C-alpha cells in the first residue's frame, strides 16, 4: 500500500499550503529536515505581535533577540511581513540577557545590549522584508527607520505611528523611503504632516499605489494639504482618509482630479460635516473619477439630510443618470442640491465589489431612504458585489433578503438587525442568508440595552475572539485594532453570559435570547446550520467563530455526512467586522 512517504517531494509545498493556520507549522517543522526546509519559510513569513497576545511586550524583545543571532540568519531571510503593534514603552535603553552556553557564545548577542542596536541588528538580518508595521507610539526611532532603508531593500509597505515628536524619530528620515507602494500613517503629527509633500513628492514616480491617513479629529490633514499632495498621487489606486474634520469635498476632488487611471479603492470616513455630497457627485459624474472603483467606504453623519445624501451616492454609483423627475429614489421633498443629472452623459457603473457604510456616532433607524438606497445599490451592482458591510444603520429584513437573493457573488455580509424582529436571527438565516450561495463570512450586530450599547458605538475588539464590556478605551497609537490590556478579555466572557441569566426575552422560533449581548455557541451553531455550506466564519456582536467541517462516517468507514462545528477564531488577521474605524 502506498504511504505518505512515497509521494514525490515536489508535492510537499502544495500539501503544506493547505495548513489553515501558519502557527501550525511549528509542528510540521519538527517532522524532519525536509519538512523544515519547506514549512520554515511559511512559519516565519509573517511575524505579528498584537497587544492582546500574552506577554506581548516580552515577546517582542525575544523576537528581536532571536532575529539578531547569527544562528537564526535563515529565519531572518524568511521574514516577509513584520507587524509590531505592541512594545514596552518603559523599557530601559539596555537589556541584560542570560549568558549563552560556551558552545554557542560566538553566535549569541552579548549579555547586555542596547535595545536600538538589538533591533537594527535584527532588521539587518531580514533582507527580504516587504511589509513593516510599527504602530506603538514612542517605540519607533530614527535608527530603526534608517535600518529599514539600509538593509530592507525590498520593502514595499510601511505602516507607522505618525507621532514623530517628543524624542521619537526625526520626520525628515521618512524622505529616504522612495520605493514604497503602500503607506499607512496613524495619527500623523505636525512633523510628519509637514513632511508629507516632500516625502511623497520624492518617491519614484508612479510607485505609490496605496495611501491611508488615519487621524482622530486632527486639524493637520486639511483640504490645502491634500491639494498640495495631489500632483504626486497621479498613480494612486487606493486612497483612504479617516478622522479629518478639516477635509471636505474640495480636498478629495483635488486628489481624484489629478489621478490618471481612476481610483480603485476609496475610503472617506469621519470627514467634515460640511462635506458637500452634491458637489462631489457632480464632479464624479462629470469627470468619471470613480469609473474603476471596486471598494468604497463611507460614513454618514446625522447632521446630513439622509435622503439627499443617499440620492447623491446612488447617482454616483448608478449606471444611467436619470433626470430629477425620473429618479425612483427622489422624493417630492428632496432639496434642490440633488437636482437634475440629465446634463451628464450616461456612464457605465463602476465594477463595485465591496461597499462599506457606517455612522460614526449613533444608530440610524430603519427608513425609506436607506431601504431605497440599498435596493438601488444591489440593482446596479448585483453582478459584482462580493462584500457589503453596514454598521450602526438598521435595515429591514426585506432589504437583507434582497441583498442575499440578488447579489450572486456575495461572499461577506455585515449587517445590523433590529432586536425585536419576529423570529430574530433564525429568521435572518433561513429567510436571507440561506439564499446567498457563495457566502463565506457573516457578522450580525443588533442594538443592546444601554449598559452594552456603548460597546457597539465606541469600541472594537482587541481580542478577535471576544470583546468585553471594558473595551471602550482606545489607544492613541493605534487606529482600529488594539489597546494596552488585551489579556483580560477572556475573563469577561463568563461575566457577560452570567449576568444576563434568564432575564432576557426569548426570540421566537429557536428560543434565542436576543437581549443577550453575547450569542451562546449552541445558538450560533443553530443559525449556522441554516446558512449555506460555503460559510467559513460567523460572528454576532462581540463574538466571532470559525466554522469547521468534520466528516461523519458509519461503522464501515463510509462518509455519510458532513458536520459543522464552531471553533475558536485563530487567524492572524482581525475579523473585518472589528476593523471599523469609529471616530
From TrEMBL:
Biased composition (Acidic residues): 470-511
Disordered: annotated segments: 458-513
Protein name per the record: F-box domain-containing protein
Organism: Dendrothele bispora (strain CBS 962.96)
Source taxonomy: Eukaryota, Fungi, Dikarya, Basidiomycota, Agaricomycotina
